[in-house]
Amino acid sequence: MKYEQQLELLLNKPREATPEECAEWERTDYFRSGNFDAMKLFVVVPTVIQLFMFFLMLGIFAMNEKLF
After folding, report:
1. Which of 21, 23, 56, 57 would bridge 17 by S-S if both were Cys, CB 3.0 to 4.6 A apart?
2. Are the C-beta atoms of residues 15 and 9 closer than 8 Å to each other?
3. Total Cβ atoms within 10 A of residue 33
4. Percent of the residues in the chain that have a pLDDT greater than 70, as a whole number
């Protein structure tokens, strides 16, 4: 009886990045370049989402009261 063998995965063998690739990442990556305001990203955006969901919930309550 012969068992099948799984092929080797190359997950932990990354290649080294070239200096040109590193320079491009510095220019194009949003978080790596640091061209963002943490207050907007981590406080304002979730607050806006939370307020939207709160008023959506109130709207659903109003619809349920009218329909049922």
Report:
1. 21
2. no
3. 11
4. 100
Q: Are 26 and 32 in contact (CB under 8 A)?
A: yes
Distances from the Cα of 15 to the Cαs of 9, 12, 25, in angstroms?
Answer: 14, 10, 16
pLDDT digits (tens, 9 = 90+) for 41-66: 889 999 999 999 999 999 999 999 99
Task: Note whether 50 and 56 are within 8 A (CB).
Answer: no
pLDDT for 21 beyond 90: yes
Which residue's entry shows tokens 């995965």? 9
Positive or negative, the Cα torsion across 48, 53, 59, 65? negative
Q: Give me the residue spans of the domains in the chain.
A: 36-68
